[in-house]
Specification:
This protein is of the alpha+beta class. Helices cover 30% and strands 22% of the residues.
């Protein structure tokens, strides 16, 4: 068989996602983060809907909608069609247009298990369907915490409400990510579609899928500043609905997603806000457990700028004892308040805290740093903004310049000037600043992520 025909006949492996179902202005971007990772050419979609109107004794599985041309399956447990169900049930109604646009070739079946449905049988039916129709996907929907007086639970979360919401939802999202259908999901009062999610997780477990969060925020953070979604502020929040999107079925989802970076930058700002106001909750600020940076331990530097003027640059290197990037970010950001006052003379205040550009710089792991003699610097180092140098002097003192230094000084400094300044920063007491020539250097790279307030985007360098 030719390579061309092999590609044409290749069957797409089915995959799935859990998405929120609030209006597009609130949860649309969370949905997009997951749906964009699924097969846009999928032929068939099984959509597991919430069911907001049901009786406590209900054991039916409702068919809310089926497209003409959707193949027949063993529907022995799916015998109850809810009259005009798709129009009544907003958890499909509010999402349908996005599904049609994202998957133009797909026929859609919408099922809604009710409170006492036989989840096991429904899961088996769906598993058989997915195994038969490889070019299909399954999507389940839920919104998480509904907080506020209109939901009858005002004052049930401690201040700051968004932080304690994260803490209360963390085990539930962990269960969804790690595919634990026998967890407390069916009994959870956080999930508004536990039967749909439990069914999905049964399927995911049988299919041996892995889960990965693609976005997580709540409606109170949906403002003109996109970063607000990922920031814990020091003011009470009176109401919100929480959203998470998770994608499944990919064997390799390496690297960082946009949500991982936004949560990381948001953590920097959250810690600075808490430090500015001396809030005790600063000590429990962290990244959610599913953020991959909890499992990484390379060096981290954080920083802020206002009107293109730096007013914090602080960080820590990788240590032999494992310290997660999440913990390093909290530690570094906690020092920004002092750094802004004492070193940069541009302190934070309530008026300028929202005018900053916030940055996180993740250093290459130390095992990948390249070590040379200081005298060999011109042979191995390029003053092009992509490399940094860690200098160790014969006296035992050391210092580093992050890649941003060479980016900013590329047109002003030669490598000799760069090294002379770095040597003096390390404590070189010679008049010429040439002690670096007798020292050693380690050359490393880093990934720098800056939240550009004006452009409302992440700039990666």
């Amino acid at each position: 068989m030719s390579k061309k025909s092999s590609r044409v006949n290749k069957v797409q492996e089915n995959r799935g996602a859990i998405i929120p179902h609030a209006g597009i202005e609130y949860a649309g971007e969370a949905r997009e983060s997951a749906l964009s990772k699924l097969n846009k050419n999928a032929n068939l979609i099984i959509y597991l809907s919430a069911l907001h109107i049901q009786r406590s004794e209900d054991n039916k599985i409702y068919q809310l909608h089926i497209d003409n041309g959707f193949p027949s399956i063993n529907m022995s447990d799916i015998t109850n069609k809810l009259s005009d169900g798709a129009k009544k049930e907003h958890s499909f109604k509010w999402v349908e247009k996005e599904l049609r646009n994202k998957f133009p070739k797909a026929k859609i079946l919408v099922l809604a298990p009710s409170i006492n449905s036989n989840i096991s049988n429904l899961s088996t039916i769906i598993i058989k369907f997915l195994n038969k129709y490889k070019n299909s996907i399954i999507i389940a929907t839920t919104d998480l915490t509904h907080y506020g007086s209109e939901f009858g639970n005002k004052d049930t979360l401690q201040f700051p409400q968004q932080l304690f919401k994260l803490i209360s939802e963390e085990p539930i999202i962990e269960a969804m990510v790690n595919i634990e259908p026998k967890s407390k999901i069916l009994k959870s009062d956080i999930i508004d579609a536990p039967q749909a999610i439990h069914t999905f997780l049964n399927v995911a477990k049988d299919m041996n899928w892995k889960g990965r969060v693609t976005d997580y925020y709540d409606s109170s953070g949906v403002t003109d500043d996109y970063l607000d979604r990922y920031v814990i502020r020091d003011i009470p929040v009176s109401k919100f609905v929480s959203y998470v999107s998770i994608v499944y079925g990919y064997r390799n989802l390496k690297g960082l997603f946009v949500t991982d970076i936004m949560a990381t930058i948001g953590l920097v700002k959250s810690v600075i806000i808490a430090s500015l106001n001396n809030n005790k909750y600063k000590n429990i600020l962290r990244l959610p457990s599913w953020n991959p940076l909890n499992k990484q331990n390379q060096g981290v530097f954080v920083g802020t700028k206002i009107s293109n003027r730096t007013n914090c640059s602080y960080g820590d290197y990788e240590e032999e004892k494992f310290t997660s990037v999440s913990d390093k970010i909290v530690q570094a950001a906690s020092n920004c308040l002092r750094d802004s006052k004492e070193r940069w003379m541009i302190p934070y205040n309530r008026e300028n805290i929202d005018k900053m550009d916030y940055k996180v710089e993740l250093l290459q792991q130390k095992k990948n740093w390249k070590e040379y003699k200081g005298s060999e610097v011109e042979k191995y180092f390029k003053l092009n903004g992509k490399q940094g140098i860690y200098l160790h002097l014969p006296s035992g003192s050391s210092a580093t310049y992050l890649p941003i230094v060479s980016r900013n000084k590329e047109d002003e400094w030669t490598i000799n000037v760069y090294m002379t300044e770095l040597s003096r920063k390390a404590g070189d007491k010679t008049k010429s600043g040439s002690e670096w020539k007798r020292g050693s250097i380690k050359i490393y790279e880093s990934d720098s992520y800056t939240w550009d307030k004006k452009q409302q985007q992440i700039n990666k360098t």
